[in-house]
Amino acid sequence: MDSSIQQNKGLVLTEKEAASFFDFLTANVVRSKISITAIVVSIRNSSTMREIRDTKKEMEIEAFLHKEIRQTDLLVNLNHPFQWCIVLAHSKEEEAGAFLNRVCDKMMNNNAFCSNEEDCKLFACVMEMRNSDVQFQDVITKGQQVLQGSTGEGQWNIEYVEDYKRIEVEEVKVSIIEENQLFCNILHTSLANMNLDRFRLNIQTFQDGYAFIQSDWHSSSHVHIIVMNDILPRKNGLEVLHMIRSLPNNQRFYIFMMTKRKTEEDMIYAYDHGVDRYIVQPFNIRLFESQIKRTLERLWT
């Protein structure tokens, strides 16, 4: 056995070994808001549509696949001849498709893998995951079922499965820090009535910055949108801003600063110190709602 093949073989996971790694990756999907994609790959003889019976060649292809993936990805040797699962971390199905096209081009143009006598055919099932409610064995079973019924033309065939792309409804905290009670109520009503498919807003209001800072409302790990005036009693908006941006993991906060100040210097100062959007009053409520929606949508881009 070629030593390089043996070395790569040792780094490939079995189905049993891969399950715990897969659970770790999917558990982080919702928190990181970055998809992972699993690809179930099968290689067959195109004339008989059966797996090629050649252990050495199977190991050569496995070593080749391992060389093509990134260090953050997983290559899993499935309990079936000439079948693998490739788990691409931090990747969507579009990236998986590009990866497969590159791999297929290299593999099919290399006679060491697929000679003219064998006429190899590669099948792949691509499944993007945007939620953590999925088990590794279910993904493998689904991919194998799809590939079993696949008879596409050409040297390779790629199928896409949508079953695991559902995004779980996520709670997002919203803090409204505004001294004017009437305007505060308007903002609260506007946000509470927004039609959101993937998010549930948990809204709290505060009349000054001090009350917000003294509360424990900002201490959770939830995504947190803060809508606040820059001029507030006791603790003003800039003081709240400094406190928020000094917290660990402060990237989870999205800060909308409302102000009547329009000078370029004020805006630059606010952005330099961590404001995500600077809103000059008076402003259009519908436009404000669109800005909030866009901020939420970008969480999964």
Automatic annotation (TrEMBL):
Domain Response regulatory: 173-296
Alphabetically ordered keywords of this record: Phosphoprotein
InterPro entries: Bact_response_regulator, CheY-like_superfamily, Sig_transdc_resp-reg_receiver
GO annotation terms (biological process): phosphorelay signal transduction system
Family matches, as Pfam families: Response_reg
UniProt-listed PANTHER family: RESPONSE REGULATORY DOMAIN-CONTAINING PROTEIN, STRESS RESPONSE REGULATOR PROTEIN 1
Protein name: Response regulatory domain-containing protein
Origin organism lineage: Bacteria, Bacillati, Bacillota, Bacilli, Bacillales
